[in-house]
Amino acid sequence: MMPRRCRTFQAGLVVFILLMVTGCQTETLEQLSIIYGIAVEADENDKEKLSGIISIPFYKKDGFENHTVTAQGKTPAEIQNELSLQSSGRLVVGKAQVLLIDEQLARQPVYRFMGFFTSEFNLPASTSLALTETSPKAMLDMSTKNVDPATNISTTISKHERLGIIPGTNLLTFVKQYVREGQDPYLPLVGMENGNNSVKLKGLALFKDDRYVMPLKGAQNLLLFALLEESVSHVLYESENDGLPLIMMFEHSNASYDWNPSEKSMKVRVRVHARLQERTNSPMDVHSEAEKGQLKMKAEQQLAAELDRLVRRFQRNDLDPVGFGEIARSQDRHWKAKEWKAIYPQLKFQTAVSVEFDSERR
């Protein structure tokens, strides 16, 4: 594993490059190949090589034409050189919307080529990053109507971030999480909907350092979001247990933490403000106060149990996407990264959830 000091220096250099202001270019548009999307995947014919794909849309008054260029090489530098040779003009990435990485390729360290594209291509810090369940080349080759495929993918990711379904991520946030002691990175996981030309958010991809470890899908995205000190809003939560059906809309949530270094334990408190969904649309079919009390208790107990299971899953896989280590460090001046890594898998967590229902009906 790369030493922390070396990783910090490398990533610090990347952050510096990301924040640099590029100079003005004097070439005409006809002399430029403006990249909107970049993808990296394993070469099907040679395991030692990578395939790099760039998406170059040409916008016209009546629409656009999307062109992709593919090149293979053993190193990102070889890929860049080949892409430059195949392109009709100088490669420009100032409008790059997304960098896609094949899910299986991400099982290997991704920083070796991500850092290259960042430094040599000078990708914007706001570029969306995502792992793909399907071929990233196929996604950049999608047939789309109003905008090019790369912009379509980036817009889909941004929409889910704004809705509070997944945490906000981009190139810069990934680099920061990568170098930060006490939190592991995560990225959106996307794919194509049933082979059609549409993008679907599949979940989150959780990393250990710069290696992809496992996905997080469905309701577990909501649970992770609730643990991240970020507000979960307008997300529907449904209970699968027997008894009174529980359906509620998250309106607001927040989390707080209390680290006890002597007992090696952490208390996690999650507060949820939600709107209880009635059983039917009939104004006569509403929950009684007694039923609301039962559902409140059910919601609190069930959410606490699900959060506990999720945290234990993180511990079993030695993953900390929440940043519990960062939280403990902020509350303990004697915190040390090496000691934290040793105790984290066995750390005691106590999770408490409080739920308040908004009585107003929509």
From TrEMBL:
Sorted alphabetically, the Gene Ontology BP terms of this entry are: spore germination
Q: Does the keyword Disulfide bond apply?
A: no
What's its membrane topology? Lipid-anchor
> Would the keyword Nucleotide-binding turn up in this protein's UniProt record?
no
Organism domain of life:
Bacteria
Q: Quick one: a GO cellular component term?
A: membrane
- The Spore germination protein N-terminal domain sits at 28-191
Q: What is its main location?
A: membrane
Recorded hits in InterPro entries, A to Z, give:
GerAC_N, Spore_GerAC-like, Spore_GerAC-like_C, Spore_GerAC_C_sf
Keyword terms of this UniProt record: Germination, Lipoprotein, Membrane, Palmitate, Signal
The family this protein is said to belong to? Belongs to the GerABKC lipoprotein family.
Protein name listed in UniProt: Ger(X)C family spore germination protein
Which species does this protein come from?
Answer: Paenibacillus montanisoli
Q: What is the lineage of its organism?
A: Bacteria, Bacillati, Bacillota, Bacilli, Bacillales
